[in-house]
Write a structure and sequence with these properties.
268 residues; alpha+beta; five-stranded antiparallel beta sheet; 6 helices; endoplasmic reticulum; cytoplasm
Length: 268
C-alpha cells in the first residue's frame, strides 16, 4: 500500500504494542479515503494543521486512542477512538456534524504479528481484509452521503414549489367557477329561508304569492273580489291566499265543465 511504509517508518520507533500497529494501519486507511489528521483529543487545539502523519502523543495511553480528522473538502469532521479490550480493539468513528456513529471490532492478532512490531515487511497480515472492513464498516459511505444530500435537496425543492392551492384532499376548482349556493362564504346556509321565513331570503315553506318573487299584478285583496269576497273582508296588508281563479272570465274552455266519458261522479 503506497504511503503506509513511509508512515510506519516515521512512527516505528514509538510502536510498543500490537495495538499501536493496528491503529497506525487504520489511520492510514482513513487518510487514503480522503481525510487528514488534525490532532489528538476530543477538542480542537490552537495552531492545528491537517497532516497525513500521526500527531505527537497519539499512542501515549496504550489503552485509549483519540484522533480527529477532517475531509479534504473541509465539509466533514470525524472523531476517531480506539479502545483496547483484552486482545481486541474496538474502533469508533463519529461524524461531529451529523453525529452519526460507526464502529468496528477486530482481533488484533488476526492482523498484527506481535513478534515483528518494528519490521514493516512482517508486522501486518491480512491487510486487504482489514482495509475492506475499515472502508465498509467504519468510514462514512460516499454513496450514503450522496443519497442524503439528494434527499435533502429534494425536500427543499418540494417545499419551494408547494403551493397552498395544491391539496390532495381538496376538490380542484376551475378558475372563475362559483359554487352552486348563493353565498360562497356560507355554503351551509341551505334551508335558511325555512328557518327564518321573514329574513328576506327567497323561497321557504310559507306560501305567499305576494312574496314569491314573481311580478305583482297590483291586486289588493282588501278591496274585495266581486261575486266572491266583499270589500273590507280582508284586512289591509294581511297575507291572502286567493280563493278560486283570479279573474272570472278566463279564455278557453274550462276542463271542469265536462266530465270524462262514461264517468259518473257526483263530485265532478
Amino acid at each position: 500500500m503506497a504511503g503506509l511504509e513511509v508512515l510506519f517508518a516515521c512512527v516505528s520507533g514509538a510502536v510498543a504494542r500490537p495495538q499501536d500497529a493496528a491503529v497506525c494501519f487504520v489511520h492510514w486507511e482513513i487518510i487514503r479515503n480522503g481525510y487528514k489528521c488534525l490532532g489528538t483529543g476530543d477538542e480542537p487545539r490552537p495552531g492545528e494543521k491537517t497532516s497525513e502523519l500521526l500527531p505527537p502523543g497519539w499512542n501515549a495511553s496504550g489503552e485509549l486512542y483519540t484522533l480527529r480528522y477532517r475531509s479534504n473538502d473541509g465539509k466533514t469532521n470525524l472523531l476517531f477512538k480506539a479502545v483496547t479490550v483484552d486482545s481486541t480493539l474496538i474502533f469508533n468513528l463519529m461524524d461531529t456534524i451529523t453525529e452519526q456513529v460507526s464502529d468496528l471490532t477486530v482481533n488484533v492478532s488476526d492482523y498484527i504479528d506481535s513478534e515483528h512490531l518494528r519490521e514493516f515487511e512482517s508486522v501486518f497480515r491480512n491487510t486487504d481484509d482489514l482495509a475492506q472492513k475499515v472502508k465498509s464498516n467504519l468510514l462514512p459511505s460516499p454513496k450514503v452521503e450522496s443519497c442524503k444530500k439528494t434527499e435533502k435537496k429534494s425536500k427543499r425543492d418540494t417545499a419551494a414549489v408547494t403551493r397552498p392551492d395544491i391539496d390532495p384532499l381538496r376538490i380542484p376548482q376551475r378558475p372563475g367557477r362559483q359554487p352552486d349556493w348563493s353565498d360562497p362564504m356560507a355554503p351551509f346556509a341551505a334551508g335558511g329561508a325555512d328557518l327564518d321565513p321573514f329574513g328576506g331570503r327567497s323561497g321557504g315553506m310559507i306560501v305567499d304569492p305576494l312574496r314569491a318573487g314573481f311580478p305583482r299584478s297590483g291586486f289588493d285583496p282588501s278591496a274585495g273580489i266581486p261575486g266572491s269576497i266583499p270589500p273590507g273582508a280582508v284586512p289591509p296588508g294581511a297575507r291572502f291566499d286567493p280563493v278560486g281563479p283570479m279573474g272570472r272570465y278566463r279564455p278557453g274552455p274550462d276542463p271542469d265543465h265536462l266530465r270524462p266519458p262514461e264517468y259518473d261522479d257526483m263530485f265532478m
